[in-house]
Each structure stands twice: as C-alpha cells, then as structure tokens.
Amino acid sequence: xxxxxxxxxxxxxxxxxxxxxxxxxxxxxxxxxxxxxxxxxxxxxxxxxxxxxxxxxxxxxxxxxxxxxxxxxxxxxxxxxxxxxxxxxxxxxxxxxxxxxxxxxxxxxxxxxxxxxxxxxxxxxxxxxxxxxxxxxxxxxxxxxxxxxxxxxxxxxxxxxxxxxxxxxxxxxxxxxxxxxxxxxxxxxxxxxxxxxxxxxxxxxxxxxxxxxxxxxxxxxxxxxxxxxxxxxxxxxxxxxxxxxxxxxxxxxxxxxxxxxxxxxxxxxxxxxxxxxxxxxxxxxxxxxxxxxxxxxxxxxxxxxxxxxxxxxxxxxxxxxxxxxxxxxxxxxxxxxxxxxxxxxxxxxxxxxxxxxxxxxxxxxxxxxxxxxxxxxxxxxxxxxxxxxxxxxxxxxxxxxxxxxxxxxxxxxxxxx
Length: 417
Hints:
The protein is mainly alpha-helical and 417 residues long. It is built from 20 helices and four strands. The chain has a four-stranded mixed sheet, sandwiched between helices. Helix 2 packs parallel to helix 11, helix 9 (183-217) packs antiparallel against helix 18 (353-363) and helix 14 (279-305) packs parallel to helix 19 (368-396).
C-alpha cells in the first residue's frame, strides 16, 4: 500500500505541476464561463429572445427608418398593400419603384437590398444581388401575397375575412403532463455527455499508455520495478489519471453548468437542452463515466506495457480503440430508442454501460435494480480489468523489442499459471 501511495503521489504531482495541464484547464473553464456571461454585456436578443435591460428601458425595440434596409416593389397587378408588407417585413423600409428596370438597376448598384415585381394576383418576380443561404424574403413575401389575395377575395364576395380567419386559426391550448421522461428535451445533453465520456476515455487512456511506454523506452522501468511492484505502478498511474481526468472535466463542466444557471434567465432558457441537466443524470454520469474510464484505463496501461516504443502505442491499442468506437457509435445511434432491447443490453455490458446507462436514466424508463446491477457488474469488471492489466503489465514491463501481440501475451499468461 505504501508503494502504491508513493506512485500515486508522484503521478498526481506530474499532473498538477504540469503548467500545460493546469493552464489549459483554467483557460477552458474561464472561456466557457465567459461565453455564458455574454448576454449580460452583449445584446444576443436575436438568439435568446431576451432584450438587454438598458436597451429595453430606452425603448429601442426596432431600428429607426434610417437604419432599415430598403426593399423595392412594383405593383403591376394592383394588389399590393404597403401596410401589410410592413407587417411581414418590420425591419425593412419599402419603396415603390417606377418599373422593373428601375428595380434591377438599384438592386445591382446595391442601393436596395431586394426587389419584387408583382405581375399578377398570385405571381411575382424576385430580384436579389447576392442571395445568402439564410434568405427568407420569398417565404415572407409569399405569405404577404396570400394575404393580399384573401383580402381582395373577401372584398369581392362580401365575406368577413376576420371571422373566417378566426375560425381557421382558432388557438388551441395544450397542457403537457409528462409523467416520466421527456426524451425530446433530454436528448441533446445526453448526446453531449456521451461524447464527453468518450473523449475522456480516449484522451486519458492514451496518456496512460504513452506514459507506460515512455518508461520502457528510456529504461526507467528497470529502476522502478526494483523499488516497487508492477501492480503498484499500474494502479498508481491509473488512479492518478482518473483523479486528474475527473479534476479537469469537473472544473470544465462545473464552470460551464454553474455559469449557465447563473445566467439562465438572460439566455431565455435556449440552452436548456444542452446545459440544464437533472441532478440524477449528473450523478449517473459521474459514477458510470468514472467506472468506464477506470475499466479502459487499466486496459490501456496494459497495452502500453506490450510495446517498447511510443510510436507503437496506437497499433497496440487499436483493438481496444475499435471496441470503444463501436460502443460510441451504437450509443449515439440508439439514443433515439433508449428503451429498445439493444440499449438495454448495452447498459449491462461493462464495455458500454458507462455511456448507455446514464442515457437510459436521462431519457428512458429504468428500474433501480437495473442501475444497481449494471453498476455492480461494472465495478466487478473494473477489478477484473485491473487484475488482467496488472498481469499483462508485469509480464510486458521488462520485455523489449518488437511489440507483443495481445493473443501471445494471453497465451504466455495462461502457461505461467
């Protein structure tokens, strides 16, 4: 135990005295927090729907006539009603042009943002110099033309357009009572958390594997194994990596979630689908995510011990990476069907429960016994991976030369037993 604590302290010191590690953690946390405080200082009402207080007090809810973009129209059919156009284009200043040539000339000279030539009750031509991908002018003008047509038809037939409109557009009031989980609202934060735990496992797993290989490549392992046991070395590295990963991810997530909660009103709740995460999902993510990380970290440490050069780490861990990628792919694909049989099976397998179980907790129906059983299986698998990893690590630490195949290493372990 004393040897393990020595290794653990040394590895933790390597993390927390690393200026790049600490600097990057602090920088990303501050960056995320600053981004979520933006609505307090910058007008993001176009995104959030919430006006900045100072502007609201001054009554600046719309641009002045001088600031409005100029649009032109030519009414050959005699149906255009400028007051109706203004309702559909509140941020536009409408001007009537003499003819189609005038519209083309001014649009080409960029004296007008766009031009419309109405050639019939249900027909018009649209003129634009550079059409952007988010151009919605024709959609709004279509609605205006439909409104013109209805109003003219009502005037001709003597119908009361307001009564007809009230009948066809009767507002319906619905009160939703979600008795369990709202999968549509919870989908995106579960999606983000699956990506985060995947990145955590791959990033820190590779770090552990490279760290082990470095010690072999510079022969430091020969000194280390004489002063401590391979088991203490592997467990110390993995636990230290887990603490370092949890610390970094905890700081980043904590700063982001706390900053959003403080500024949630200013954001108008638009980021709730990403950042308003229930406590039970956060706890499930913490326990299962950490468990999955430890499970794979032990295996990554063993893969690092099977090679003698850092450039061979990727090749040695390729099989492990394939498993992680398959789990990652299926987890994301099955998020839309968390109560399906595939997701239920994956939530009990130690190779995948770290991401699928908290997704089921966040979006589906899962019994308490399922959570407990899944977690116990994961814990048992962590110990199993730790024991297997320690044996592979012990066997591979002092074997140099070509990379050792996993199948060969397992056969050697079986013979030695």
